[in-house]
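Changelog-linked ticket: calcium ion example.
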Amino acid sequence: MAITEVMESALKDGQFTFYLQPKYDIRNNLPSGAEALVRWIHPEWGFMSPADFIPLFESNGFITTLDEYIWEEVFKTLERWKRSGFKLLPVSVNVSRIDVLRSSLPDTFRRLLNKYDVEPEYVHLELTESAYSDNTREIIDTVDELRQLGFLIEMDDFGSGYSSLTSLNELNFSTVKLDKSLIDYIDQVRGKKIVQQAIDLGHGLDMKVVAEGVESKEQRDCLKEMHCDMIQGFYYSKPLKQEDFIEKLRA
Ligand code: C2E
Ligand code: CA
Ligand code: CA
């Protein structure tokens, strides 16, 4: 059976969920946020990672339905944590470039804010810079509207694929996430310089800088020396089931 034939029933059946990968504050080694990452647990096919289905859903448009579902699940989870007295950490959600082109994006998030008892500062929106390769007025307005609602916007995958410095100028990001492909070269002379320049660029624009895909202590130490703010990577933690995430935070 093809993925496209089962995706809608899979969503209704609750086969999609999200894992949480903590982002650590590099100064004190404590979690200061998390990213929600979708997972599809199919009764027969088993565990599927986003690479197996996101590109397909981006091409057939189903990504918007799935993303809205994940965003709502994140709001529900944050509300539940709040009610149970659990200290809230901001959770970021992924917003596909297809979602951004839809004019109703601010309406979707406005509805979620009205429906759930969650402050917008606890939800960060991660956008890939390629979402802005056509920097139309419309996209700039959408991002401004989301900012006005109180959301913080993070530029995802900085340094990979499209490198649009223009979007850093035009869009009001609070955070820039350095792509794993940059971090992978940090042990080389030129690679290290590029990461340092990217961190300085982020700070010069009053943004927080998160390094993604950090896998070793050497990388962590190097990023600390360079005054990177946050680390997200297997060195600290893989993406975790919600129960395991809470357990880790409690520990
Ligand atoms: P991303 O947004 O850049 O998310 C980070 C990816 O890097 C995650 O892969 C995470 O598991 C992986 N990662 C984190 N630390 C390390 C590390 O130290 N080493 C290595 N090798 N990998 C690390 P994942 O969960 O497979 O997601 C892949 C991509 O799928 C995401 O990249 C994002 O572009 C997309 N994605 C995931 N969830 C969603 C979603 O809910 N909506 C949308 N639209 N896209 C999503
Ligand atoms: Ca992301
Ligand atoms: Ca990323």
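Closing comment: Example verified and attached. The mean pLDDT is 93. The beta strands are 16-25, 30-42, 46-48, 91-95, 123-128, 152-158, 175-178, 208-212, 230-232.
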